[in-house]
Design brief:
With about 230 residues, the chain is an alpha/beta fold. The chain has one domain: Glycerol-3-phosphate (1)-acyltransferase, CATH 3.40.1130. The protein is built from seven helices and seven strands. The protein has a seven-stranded mixed β-sheet, sandwiched between helices. Helix 1 crosses helix 4, helix 2 packs across helix 3 and helix 5 packs across helix 6.
Length: about 230
């Protein structure tokens, strides 16, 4: 059962990648159409895994505003989970290695995802500028400030890039804690486990204008730790 679920996830990912590439080539891949395709993919993966999903909102969220969404990162399933629960246009900043995957990488570029190479400072700066431009156009940007998946579920050190982006773009940070996703697809495995309980908690938006970067990092880390250690 687990293997077939994993195969389904791969199939659906290839399917939306092909749709994105073909529609981009024919000029049909608008932001709204990309949203529809990504949302359909995310909903299908969440349903197939029969995730026992619990979503909480701790503070009012005005989705007419644009946010830098920051979450912890436990599993590849964080991506479909977030696209499943966020009711607005969202694109992600992700490592260059994912863009090297045939078809999937091109599809991500066509859909407006932002590639970042942390080893190349000039490219990393260009990526942040691209993300800031997307925010100015009303696109929410998701970034995992840990920079990589946690192997144990514990929260790792937070990197500064996303906080710098939020301050430069003048966008509020929307913290999101994801608890339990590593039980759906643990690190270093390709087997999807059905029926895992996952909690996704949205915090109150954190204004960044005039705020100290260190204070913002402390605020986000405190929120994430509070919800992961329960």
């Amino acid at each position: 059962m687990g293997v077939s679920d994993s195969t389904f996830a791969v199939y659906k990912t290839l399917e939306i990648s092909m749709i994105a590439v073909v529609e981009a080539m024919t000029g049909k891949l608008t932001i709204a159409r990309a949203d529809e395709v990504i949302k359909g993919w995310a909903d299908a993966l969440v349903r197939r895994a029969r995730i026992d999903l619990h979503t909480r909102v701790e503070g009012p969220i005005d989705w007419s505003r644009t946010y830098v969404i920051m979450s912890n990162h436990q599993s590849h399933y964080d991506i479909p989970l977030l696209y499943h629960v966020v009711p607005a246009t969202m694109r992600m900043v992700t490592k260059k290695e994912l863009f090297r995957v045939p078809l999937w990488g091109r599809a991500m570029r066509e859909a407006g995802m932002v590639e970042v190479d942390r080893q190349d400072r000039s490219q990393a700066v260009a990526s942040l500028r691209a993300a800031a431009a997307a925010i100015a156009q009303g696109v929410n940007i998701w970034i995992a400030p840990e920079g990589t998946r946690s192997r144990t579920g514990a929260l790792g050190p937070l990197r500064k890039g996303g906080f710098h982006l939020a301050r430069e773009a003048g966008a509020p940070i929307l913290p999101v804690a994801i608890r339990g996703s590593r039980e759906v697809l643990p690190a270093k495995t390709a087997i999807v486990r059905r029926g895992a309980r996952v909690e996704v908690t949205f915090g109150a938006a954190i204004e960044t204008a005039g705020q100290d970067q260190s204070a913002l990092m402390t605020h986000v880390r405190s929120f994430l730790e509070r919800h992961l250690e329960r």
